[in-house]
Amino acid sequence: MSSPETAPLHDPAAEEERQLVRTWRSPTGFPGWFLPVNQREIGKRFIVTAFGFFIAAGILALLMRVQLAHPRLEFLSPDLYNQFFTMHGVTMMFLFAIPVMEGMAIYLAPLMIGTRDMALPRLNAFGYYVFLLGGLLLYAGFAVGLAPDVGWFAYPPLAGAEYSPTLRADFYATLIAFIEVAALVAAVELVVTIFKQRAPGMSLNRMPLFVWAILVTAFMIVFAMPAVMVASMMLALDRTVGTHFFAASGAGGPVLWQHLFWFFGHPEVYIIFIPALGMVSSIVGTFARRPLFGYTALVLSLIATGFLGFGLWVHHMFTVGLPQLAMSFFTGASLLIAIPSGVQIFCWIATLWMGKPVIRTPLLFVLGFFFIFTLGGLTGVMVASVPFDQQAHDTFFLVAHFHYVLIGGSVFPLMGGLYFWWPKFTGRMMSEKMGVASFALLFIGFNVTFFPMHELGLIGMPRRVYTYVEGMGWDNLNFIATVGAAVLTLGFAVTLINAIWSWFRGREAGPNPWNGDSLEWATASPPPVYNFRHPPVVRGRWPMWENPQPEDRVTGLRPDRREVLITTVLDARPQGIAVLPGPSIWPFLLALAVCVAFGGFMIHPAFFLVGFFAAFAIVVAWHWPGEEERLPPWKERTRE
């Protein structure tokens, strides 16, 4: 089969593809690294960068486990342990979990809905550079001895100027607000793209469940992230200019920080968890070889989880001393949110039960998720009870519960999704044997690491301690947990080796190696730079199974401009054509200016003004109309 480059020049289809490649390709070379805006390029950068931070967080966690392997070890000093403890949590929650899920969404959602790019491509690139610069600046604190050491939750008054006089807490307060700009940017783009750029015929009740999960997540980010951004800036102002938002003697007080932080913090658990549910749905349907059971119930469960996630934040504060009547409502909400999660698990089990499951690595990770997340959910119901939580709150029982929910509920599905969509990302298959070995090591290592922590908590070991004395009955369980952490690390290392090996030597995948049901499998692997030569027309919920080679396709999009089809919100009826901007240096420069504003604020508030005026000038240049921008952004749709 001839490629666009080798096809005869008189072939109109080949000429159109050559023009599309010229229009949509990204610049090359080192200068070109700062210019791309293509959704697949930015999505891959989010994913790779997030996994880089994940490796860093994993190393910190392993070093902490070594410190706790035996009583009175001096492997890490108390100060260094606090820095590692804080940066591990900050990295996993702010630099890995949310960015990697957004990266998967940025790469996959446009393909799944049959469009060529995100609605706001330059804003997309800006969000990535904010994430990258914020993360690097945060880790630069290690190089100068100023890494945050107040916990990933940074409770005042510990995080206040009186008890943390160095810049360590300033790194936390200012950079968390900065990094979350990237999350908000990605959420806005995803909402606009999903609502306005779906393929004709893909009404809301035909969207893939992964896209539904991303849509719910994006709305949650829009409502949850401002709380932590405002709280972080209030803390920065307390420390920098002497305000008293969280001072015990002021009108606010330390508990105000907890309310603001956990109003973001608990929805964040579901911001991480809900995209993982979408991945599970994609994997279960594909490997069960049948349409998902209970599509409507699954969608409603995702939406219910998103709504209920905002009503649980006080169950992190049961030991603060709030009125018991108020806490009872949050107990009820904490119990209630288990219902939509249970509905989804039963729908997936029914799908597998009535299908003909094909056991492959992605499905193994989903089955591991069923087991681990169910255990995490059961302990979640336990800590939703105020009397039990008041006994177990500051113990290792909560550490175990937290990791069973987040790693079991998010990382295991993510690993399954990585194996599932790796052929789409690279055009090559991962080794199945290495995949099974990685799953076995991760499943065993995870349970050996974190299950003993339940008992450690129940027999009294407090969390957030860097060492302990002999004779408490904690020695053997801590040693077992450290051995499990080593096995867990080995499991992730096997997947990393598998990815590197398959990148160069893996078997070629073809467009649809798993016989998937959604539109990302309707194009080549990896997809061309323009995703679809002609956007498809959708006739059902499972387009690749119901009509794998649709004859109806949208034409009329010019190949010499970055044009995408705009459709109506509810029924995805063609409405118009939008012209998207191409590669640009302005997103990177704007991210740099905003980084100066936030980073310099730690030193002196005047730096914020410098960054602000620089950002203002860059935004003016960004929106200054060039030749492409002078073209009318909308025109009447044409279609054969």
Largest sheet: 3 strands, antiparallel
Could you give the order of the helices and strands?
HHHHHHHHHHHHHHHHHEEHHE
Catalogue the unreliable spans: 629-640
Mean pLDDT: 91
What structural class is derived from the secondary structure elements? mainly alpha
Structural features, described:
By secondary structure, this protein is an all-alpha fold. It has a domain at 1-22 and 36-207 and 510-640. The protein contains 19 helices and 3 strands. Strand 1 and strand 2 form a beta hairpin. Residues 629-640 have low confidence and may be disordered.
TL;DR?
The protein is mainly alpha-helical.
Short key terms for the protein model shown above:
640 residues, mainly alpha, three-stranded antiparallel sheet, 19 helices, globular, disordered C terminus
Helices and strands in order, then pairings?
Layout: H1 12-24, H2 29-32, H3 39-67, H4 78-112, H5 121-143, H6 168-196, H7 209-240, H8 254-288, H9 295-308, H10 324-336, H11 338-354, H12 361-383, H13 386-392, H14 396-426, H15 432-458, H16 475-505, H17 543-546, E1 563-567, E2 574-579, H18 586-601, H19 606-623, E3 634-635
Antiparallel strand pairs: 1-2, 2-3
